[in-house]
Design a protein that fits this description.
The chain is α/β, with parallel strands linked by helices. The protein folds into 2 domains: about 1-40; about 40-255, 3-Layer(aba) Sandwich (Rossmann fold), CATH 3.40.50. It has helices spanning about 5-30, 50-60, 75-80, 110-130, 140-145, 155-160, 175-180, 240-255; strands at about 40-45, 60-65, 85-90, 135, 150, 165-170, 185-190, 195, 205-210, 215-220, 225-230. It has a 9-stranded mixed beta sheet, with helices on both faces. The protein has a two-stranded antiparallel ribbon with strand order 5-8. The relative contact order is 0.15.
């Protein structure tokens, strides 16, 4: 069933149920029944853990895990049509050949199936869809590379910094969408990455850095589009951390608006 058919069917089902319930409530003198909105479908690429699933559910979305079996691109057009938002989670490293560089000795390459699938999916979503995209850690790096940018392959050896299994602050640009979501310009985040954005991809802007200058978040230069990548892991911090829950909710809310 295509997206239009699915929405029509769901709408019809809800309308019928609501009509029957309203009729029965009226017969019984009960309260008026109010229709509930349909929750947005959030695609999660190549699931690494259940944290993303839990975070999407807590934010009001319906998670849909996308298989990268054999690196197949066959269903990507269907995903673009039927999903309301795309979340790309963390993982190992994008092959540096993707952005024209030799591989550093510290690089741990993605499984080939996942690499081929996420490469095609991220490019298609960025270029062919206006629907919301949230990249987390590796997902943030995919956003940049798929937009034509490059990566620092190893932060410790190339910059002398340490962003692996630590906590540090990030400083946000106050004219960014990300700042409007969090409502504050500096806070602590978790950090488990050894790579980060180097040369910025087309159509992106830098909206957060760590104190040592590493790029921690990017977003679309189009203020009307929800296209955000963060190097930290908000999904690991919710629901206990209300600050990070704001980001997941903003993403899911944006996806609901695009239905």
């Amino acid at each position: 069933m295509n997206s239009t058919g699915r929405r029509w069917f769901l709408g019809l089902t809800i309308a019928v149920v609501a009509a029957v319930a309203g009729y029965l409530a009226g017969k019984r003198g009960g309260p008026e029944v109010v229709d509930e909105p349909v929750a947005p479908l959030i695609g999660i690429a190549s699931l690494e853990s259940e944290n993303c699933i839990s975070a999407v559910i807590a934010a009001g979305g319906v998670p849909v895990v996308l298989p990268d079996t054999e690196g197949s691109e066959e269903k990507i057009p269907d995903y673009l049509e039927q999903l309301d938002g795309l979340l790309m989670p963390g993982g190992q490293d994008i092959p540096p050949s993707e952005y024209g560089e030799e591989t550093h000795e510290t690089v741990l390459l993605l499984d080939d199936n996942r690499y081929r699938f996420e490469r095609a999916l991220s490019r298609a979503w960025i270029e062919q869809s206006e629907k919301p995209f949230l990249g987390i850690c590796l997902g943030s790096q995919w956003l940049n590379v798929s937009s034509g940018g490059t990566l620092i392959q190893d932060i410790p050896s190339e910059t002398g910094g340490n962003h692996g299994d630590v906590e540090h602050s990030v400083i946000l640009e106050e004219d960014s969408r990300l700042f409007s979501i969090f409502g504050e310009s500096e806070f602590e985040v978790n950090s488990t990455h050894h790579q980060a954005v180097d040369e910025l991809g087309e159509g992106l802007r830098i909206v957060a850095r760590s104190p040592d200058g590493i790029i921690e978040a990017t977003e679309s230069t189009d203020p009307g589009r929800f296209l955000i990548g963060v190097q930290w892991h908000p999904e690991r911090l919710v629901p206990e951390d209300e600050r990070q829950a704001k980001l997941i909710r903003a993403f899911v809310d944006a996806a609901a608006e695009k239905e």
